């Protein structure tokens, strides 16, 4: 009985699908794309869609939502400011998609945004999603600005549409390394990464720099971005007696790690990248957070008028602290809008060229792109936790020359030190 | 005689109609629902291959495998390493796809061998472990020497190309554009149809019957002269082969792969497709694969609908999507515990179980 | 030597949490032959409920009282949840094909995760530091008083459970149902009630485990159940799934393997297979154990489980 019913219903579905297909074929003559494009022109105000693609579900949802919130805030601000493009008033609209931090879904989502005719896309979060998606945006000629993908390969594919507003691993790692050597006078260093593209890239570049600077890397350990127990590796590291521990990863791991260091009586200093320079790190680690160092690209937000205002606005709007990449998401939208203003058009073919000429001071500091679409060496600020707050310690502007070398070094040196150990 | 002929011609008409629909499908979808849906169909076809591969192991031979995505990964990395700037090798897919399938089959046998004695849920956890082991190795084989490029993944993987035709380019004939997603659709469709054909032929072959015999009662099967060890290993190898081919196609389609595409959740998803569709029944499994790929995507429209119908967004659309997806899994199983389209043997079993009042264990 | 002792302690502490969670898997499996994939998420709910209660009460009451209320609330919520899941998602499928409940379990797991996301959001939440733990030191190794408390409590719960299953009337009914539900039913055991009770018991132990995870690591997140569940499931199989002492042994052993592998294998293999392969070692031990003893360390060869 059931089976027959199923066959019948399947047949019915098939019939409907066929009819649908045939009717769709029939009125195909004027391409529907053109129809869609006509619609928004009718009203006085032109609607410009900005896409946001990041994980909104899954393990990394909290970071993805943070990015989307940043984008949303930027769009609302722009709408409040009554931006005019080419002398006409415009209204910006957010199209937020969930890529689940999954590369396959990322490409689907990218195609969806392209289909929705967005003018530009802010995304994706992880390099594993940004890289495959970049091809789809490039084919469609839609500019993409990633607020958070740090894999150097992301911008090395030769696409004109690919940008990022975050320092890549080859920029931040060496700066951290030099700080560890020069300011913290570290001699014996332990390095831990979270086995993700971000954490490992940062840690590799840090390791290469400190080694080149004469420090000894006494341990190189790994964890995952889902773990909360680091006692085994920390105990091992304790046995090697380092004076500094560097962690490449983000706050949900960095915070318990710092806590467990205290529990195990490890007195070494602790340093990390922008992934842990967050209010959440202090919240999660509590008193143990005290004395931790972390770097973040850009000038100190607290001292910049735009930055301070941004933090306040974010808090008021979403009733939460900025997690990580919301400021980058915010600035990415502003970069789009600035480029549109200069080009006098929201057509990607017209304003794309203007993005490369960006010279904008956003929440994260000065933004300008090199020919690959990476941030040109902007300043990187190093913070320390003091009295339960991140306090800016110093701002470093890395020299341009040493910028690209470390990545190669890291790759080449990895086998050698493994053999040495 | 005449009725037979009539039946025959009706059948041919049906097949012809199906062909027309399948050929027209990507273009119609592109024009109506948007290109993203063509991409979703492409992915669905890949999952049809994967699900049918797993169906051999779980559905035919009754071996619960929770690490199946590992073979997909092996196939994908096989293609990616030999057709990308990673080692500067750019092999042809005509060589690499069969190679990927073979390597995956070897892995299938390697992973299958130690588990031959295990049954049921013990097998499940061991296969789950193997799946994780493969992923962890892929994630870490960038040191001491760089084989897989670790978590950074492999980029700039060659698309399928032969004789100057590349599937990553858009071809225009008379203003009628055929984009890469369309081209890949036809390649994936051909591969999926081949997989379906092989699966159907296997089902009623000597080997297929041996698998079912093992699934029903391993002891009795071996008493009937079936070499249970070889037949089980063959199931693992055959299943892995499908996964390997699908992996190679996936790598070329995406142009980038990294270990995060091959997690435990992906294995679980493929298993859901097989069980939900109807274990052991090719039609059911195909239905399950398409449904579970399309359903989460279709549920993406829920967010805007909320806005339209209720005036405001009550629940974060992405959360609502996952909630509905979870609910759908539960409800579908509650109402059709043997799968949406169960195989005939399975249906008989189900009735049998009811009659003897045997508990679920 | 003090480093080695510390690693052993790390392993035992981690293992005691795995063991508690593993009990939930093993009890349900023993009775129903079902992998309750949603158990890790019950642990998560227990953790987040306790976290919320502690945050709400803060230091308004003595610390012990706050923890007691938090644990009681977590247990109550989780037991209710466990019973609802059993009634709606598993009971109707008791006679269905073996893999059908596996899919509903996955569905339920997704439902719980995203319901939790709606209630608590998707941010990592921190436990307020209501108690300043002291340090206990012996032989050069250090643990905090909180951790010692967790370990002792975990052992106490396991001992109590063993005693309960061995001696009480309900425990006997549970064992009878496990061996043969039909015969147990004929002997006057209300198997439906026993199964529901088992779920409730597993959920309450899961809730306590959740509270411990929060106390130990000081943070919670709607996705945290997945990892804990996966590890505990491995531990349950390692010990012999369906066997209660086996789950405890498996949990402690898994904790030790992880700890020692991450601590020493890197140096032993010259840095090639370091802490990045920690989970690989755990699974290799599992495979080896199962090859030698196909029913786990303490599992009874049950003939046909497939």
Question: What do you see in this structure?
Answer:
In chain A, 47% of the residues lie in helices and 19% in strands. Chain A is an alpha/beta fold. The radius of gyration of chain A is 24 Å and the shape is elongated. Residues 5-42 and 400-421 of chain A have low confidence and may be disordered. Chain B folds into two domains: 1-32; 33-360, ABC transporter involved in vitamin B12 uptake, BtuC (Orthogonal Bundle), CATH 1.10.3470. In chain C, helix 2 packs parallel to helix 4 (100-120), helix 2 crosses helix 9 and helix 10 crosses helix 11. Chain C is mainly α and 306 residues long. The N and C termini of chain C lie far apart (46 Å). The model of chain C has no long low-confidence stretch (mean pLDDT 90). Helix content of chain C is 73%, strand content 4%. Chains in contact: A-B, A-C, B-C. At the A-B interface, helix 1, helix 4, helix 5, helix 7 and helix 14 of A face helix 1, helix 2 and helix 13 of B.
What's the helix and strand layout?
The complex is a heterotrimer of chains A (421), B (361) and C (306).
Chain A: H1 2-26, H2 32-41, E1 46-54, H3 61-80, E2 84-85, E3 88-98, H4 103-115, E4 120-123, H5 127-140, E5 144-146, E6 162-164, H6 169-182, E7 188-193, H7 197-212, E8 216-222, H8 231-240, E9 244-248, H9 251-263, E10 269-272, H10 279-285, E11 293-297, H11 305-318, H12 326-343, H13 348-356, E12 360-362, E13 365-367, E14 380-386, E15 389-396, H14 405-420
Parallel strand pairs in A: 1-3, 1-4, 4-5, 5-6, 7-8, 7-9, 9-10, 10-11
Antiparallel strand pairs in A: 2-3, 11-14, 12-13, 14-15
Chain B: H1 2-32, H2 35-60, H3 69-82, E1 83-84, E2 89-90, H4 93-112, H5 120-140, E3 161-162, E4 165-166, E5 171-173, E6 176-178, H6 180-203, H7 206-216, H8 218-223, H9 228-254, H10 264-277, H11 282-298, H12 302-310, H13 317-335, H14 344-356
Antiparallel strand pairs in B: 1-2, 3-4, 5-6
Helix pairs in contact in B: 1-2, 2-6, 2-9, 2-10, 2-11, 3-4, 3-5, 3-9, 4-9, 6-9, 7-9, 10-11, 12-13
Chain C: H1 2-32, H2 39-57, H3 63-90, H4 100-120, E1 125-126, E2 135-138, E3 141-144, H5 145-167, H6 169-179, H7 181-186, H8 191-217, E4 219-220, H9 224-239, H10 244-268, H11 278-292
Antiparallel strand pairs in C: 1-4, 2-3
């Amino acid at each position: 009985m059931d089976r027959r019913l199923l066959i019948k219903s399947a047949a019915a579905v098939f019939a409907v699908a066929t009819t649908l297909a045939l009717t769709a074929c029939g009125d195909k003559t004027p391409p529907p794309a053109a129809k869609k494009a006509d619609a928004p022109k009718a009203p006085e105000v032109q609607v410009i869609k900005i896409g946001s693609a990041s994980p909104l579900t899954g393990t990394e949802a909290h970071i993805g939502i943070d990015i989307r919130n940043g984008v949303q805030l930027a769009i609302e601000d722009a709408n409040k400011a009554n931006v005019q493009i080419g002398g006409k008033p415009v209204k910006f609209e957010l199209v937020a998609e969930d890529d689940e931090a999954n590369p396959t879904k990322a490409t689907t989502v990218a195609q969806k945004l392209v289909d929705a005719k967005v003018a530009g896309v802010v995304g994706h979060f992880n390099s594993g999603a940004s890289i495959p998606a970049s091809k789809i945006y490039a084919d469609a000629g839609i500019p993409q600005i990633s607020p958070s993908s740090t894999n150097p390969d992301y911008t090395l594919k030769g696409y004109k549409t690919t940008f990022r507003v975050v320092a890549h691993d080859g920029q931040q790692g060496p700066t951290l390394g030099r700080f560890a050597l020069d300011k913290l006078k570290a001699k014996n260093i332990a390095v831990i990464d979270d086995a993700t593209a971000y954490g490992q890239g940062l840690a590799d570049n840090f390791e290469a720099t400190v080694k080149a600077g004469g420090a000894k890397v006494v341990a190189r350990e790994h964890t995952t971005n889902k773990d909360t127990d680091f006692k085994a590796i920390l105990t091992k590291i304790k046995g090697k007696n380092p004076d500094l521990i560097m962690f490449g990863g983000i706050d949900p791991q960095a915070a318990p790690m710092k806590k467990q260091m205290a529990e195990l009586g490890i007195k070494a200093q602790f340093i990390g990248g922008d992934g842990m320079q967050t209010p959440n790190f202090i919240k999660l680690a509590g008193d143990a957070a005290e004395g931790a160092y972390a770097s973040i690209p850009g000038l100190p937000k607290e001292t910049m008028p735009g930055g301070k205002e941004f933090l306040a606005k974010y808090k008021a709007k979403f009733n939460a602290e900025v997690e990580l990449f919301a400021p980058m998401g915010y600035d990415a939208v502003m970069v789009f809008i600035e480029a549109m203003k200069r080009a006098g058009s929201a057509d990607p073919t017209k304003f794309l060229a203007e993005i490369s000429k960006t010279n904008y001071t956003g929440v994260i500091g000065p933004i300008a792109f090199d020919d690959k679409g990476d941030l040109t060496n902007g300043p990187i600020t190093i913070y320390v936790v003091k009295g339960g707050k991140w306090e800016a310690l110093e701002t470093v502007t890395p020299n341009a020359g040493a910028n690209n070398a470390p990545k190669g070094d890291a790759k080449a040196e990895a086998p050698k030190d493994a053999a040495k150990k | 005689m005449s009725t037979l002929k009539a039946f025959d011609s009706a059948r041919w008409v049906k097949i012809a109609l199906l062909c027309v629909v399948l050929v027209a499908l990507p273009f119609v979808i592109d024009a109506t629902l948007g290109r993203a849906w063509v991409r979703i169909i492409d992915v669905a076809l890949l999952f049809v291959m994967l699900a049918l591969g797993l169906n051999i192991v779980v559905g035919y031979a009754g071996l619960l495998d929770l690490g199946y995505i590992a073979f997909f990964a092996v196939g994908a990395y096989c293609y990616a390493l030999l057709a990308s700037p990673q080692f500067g090798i750019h092999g042809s897919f005509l060589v690499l796809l069969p190679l990927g399938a073979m390597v995956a089959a070897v892995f299938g046998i390697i992973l299958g061998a130690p588990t031959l004695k295990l049954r049921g849920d013990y097998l499940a956890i061991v296969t789950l472990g193997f799946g994780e082991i493969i992923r962890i190795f892929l994630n870490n084989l960038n040191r001491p020497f760089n084989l897989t490029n670790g978590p950074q993944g492999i980029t700039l993987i060659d698309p399928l190309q032969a004789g100057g035709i590349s599937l990553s380019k858009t071809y225009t004939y008379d203003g009628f554009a055929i984009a890469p997603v369309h081209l890949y659709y036809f390649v994936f469709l051909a591969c999926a149809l081949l997989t379906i054909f092989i699966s159907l032929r296997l089902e009623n072959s000597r080997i297929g019957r041996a698998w079912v015999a093992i699934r029903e009662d391993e002891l009795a099967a071996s008493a009937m002269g079936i070499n249970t060890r070889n037949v089980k290993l063959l199931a693992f190898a055959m299943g892995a082969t499908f996964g390997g081919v699908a992996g190679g196609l996936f790598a070329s389609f995406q142009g980038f792969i990294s270990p995060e595409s091959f997690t435990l959740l992906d294995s679980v998803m493929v298993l859901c497709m097989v069980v939900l569709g109807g274990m052991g029944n090719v039609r059911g499994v195909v239905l399950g694969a398409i449904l579970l790929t399309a359903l989460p995507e279709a549920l993406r429209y829920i967010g805007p609908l909320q806005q339209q119908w209720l005036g405001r967004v009550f629940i974060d659309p992405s959360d609502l999507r996952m909630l509905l997806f979870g609910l759908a899994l539960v409800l579908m199983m509650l109402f059709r515990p043997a799968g949406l389209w169960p195989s005939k043997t399975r249906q008989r079993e189900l009735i049998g179980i009811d009659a003897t009042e045997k508990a679920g264990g | 030597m003090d480093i080695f002792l510390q690693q052993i302690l790390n392993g035992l502490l981690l293992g005691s949490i795995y063991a508690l969670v593993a009990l939930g898997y093993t009890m349900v499996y023993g009775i129903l032959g079902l992998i309750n994939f949603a158990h890790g998420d019950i642990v998560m709910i227990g953790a987040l409920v306790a976290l919320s209660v502690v945050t709400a009460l803060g230091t308004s009451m003595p610390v012990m009282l706050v923890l007691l209320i938090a644990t009681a609330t977590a247990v109550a919520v989780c037991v209710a949840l466990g019973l609802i899941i059993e009634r709606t998602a598993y009971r109707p499928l008791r006679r269905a094909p073996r893999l059908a409940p596996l899919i509903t379990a996955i569905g339920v797991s997704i439902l719980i995760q995203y319901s939790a996301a709606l209630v608590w959001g998707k941010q990592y939440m921190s436990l307020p530091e209501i108690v300043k733990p002291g340090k206990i030191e012996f032989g050069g190794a250090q643990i905090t008083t909180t951790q010692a408390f967790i370990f002792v409590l975990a052992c106490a719960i396991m001992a109590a459970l063993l005693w309960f299953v061995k001696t009480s009337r309900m425990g006997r009914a549970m064992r009878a149902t496990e061996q043969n539900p039909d015969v147990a039913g004929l002997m006057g055991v209300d198997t439906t009630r026993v199964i529901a009770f088992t779920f409730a018991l597993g959920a309450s132990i899961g809730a306590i485990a959740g509270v411990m995870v929060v106390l130990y690591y000081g943070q919670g997140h709607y996705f945290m159940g997945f990892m804990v569940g996966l590890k505990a499931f491995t531990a349950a199989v390692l010990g012999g799934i369906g066997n209660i002492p086996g789950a405890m042994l498996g949990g402690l052993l898994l904790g030790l393997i992880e700890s020692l592998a991450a601590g020493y294998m890197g140096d032993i293999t010259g840095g090639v297979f370091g802490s990045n392969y920690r989970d690989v070692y755990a699974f290799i031990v599992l495979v080896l154990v199962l090859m030698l003893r196909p029913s786990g360390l303490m599992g009874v060869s049950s003939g046909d489980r497939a």
